[in-house]
Amino acid sequence: SKAKLFDEKNDIKVTFKDVAGLEGAKEEVQEIVEFLKNPEKYTSIGGKIPKGALLVGPPGTGKTLLAKAVAGEAKVPFFSLSGSDFVEMFVGVGASRVRDLFKQAKEKSPAIIFIDEIDAVGRARGKNNFSGSNDERENTLNQLLTEMDGFGTNTNVIVLAATNRADVLDKALMRAGRFDRQIYVDLPDIRERREIFEVHLTPLKKSENLDTEFLAKQTPGFSGADIANVCNEAALIAARKDKTSVDKQDFLDAVDRIVGGLEKKNKIIS
Ligand code: ATP
């Protein structure tokens, strides 16, 4: 059987209200939502709809979530794949995979293509990467550039890509008419952490009115993904103790556990 080339979702339910904080980034992608909802409004007076935007920021800050919310808000199909998947491809498959992806997206336009971890495929060309698959990676990257250049003004497909390593990307990707917009998705500040807690506390059965300001204070340096993790971990800790609701102590235990995990991870990296 043929390996799955990419993921296609036609009924994304994620909207901006699921994305806490990130006001600046949301404002920037709001414009993309408008283009996708009503492309003719822009093209009929000769405007060129942007082809791509790069979402740049640390892991777990909501880049994928934000890209999905764009598709959800605009009610358009969401095609996604991960740059790291390309690296595992057989020779020649990466480029044809890209071709296929763009063909499908154009047929269903307006649409969003989302490429996670674009740095895996979009590293500057001609540099040693010791992986032995450099040629294949370059072919894939070249095909991506070719596809984006080949977009007409009425293609109505917008490519969003995510990376936490914008510094290693091939400058060709950032040229006009490609990923010429960069949108920063940073770690949340205390107010944003509070908002993220509010989102992820909603589905939990809570035993008291949990103070989100307190929780935000306990979690400096945490990403949105870390906070989602804390909330789930707290629920699991409570359930393990046969409680029927989650309390403050469960959250403190969950924070400790996540901090322990993060410290281990950082030790391995450094
Ligand atoms: P990576 O760089 O590791 O791929 P990412 O920036 O794409 O990470 P997401 O995959 O979007 O991060 O985030 C993972 C999960 O963390 C989300 O599905 C969501 O549950 C939670 N999350 C992250 N950021 C936010 C946010 N701003 N608001 C609400 N939830 C968030």
Automatic annotation (TrEMBL):
Its main location: membrane. ATP binds at residues 57-64. It is found in: Cell membrane. One of its GO terms (molecular function) is metallopeptidase activity. Keywords: ATP-binding, Cell membrane, Hydrolase, Membrane, Metal-binding, Metalloprotease, Nucleotide-binding, Protease, Transmembrane, Transmembrane helix, Zinc. The keyword Membrane applies. Residues 49-189 form the AAA+ ATPase domain. Homohexamer. In the central section; belongs to the AAA ATPase family. Belongs to the AAA ATPase family. Acts as a processive, ATP-dependent zinc metallopeptidase for both cytoplasmic and membrane proteins. Plays a role in the quality control of integral membrane proteins. This is ATP-dependent zinc metalloprotease FtsH. It comes from Flavobacterium litorale. The lineage of its organism: Bacteria, Pseudomonadati, Bacteroidota, Flavobacteriia, Flavobacteriales. The gene is ftsH.
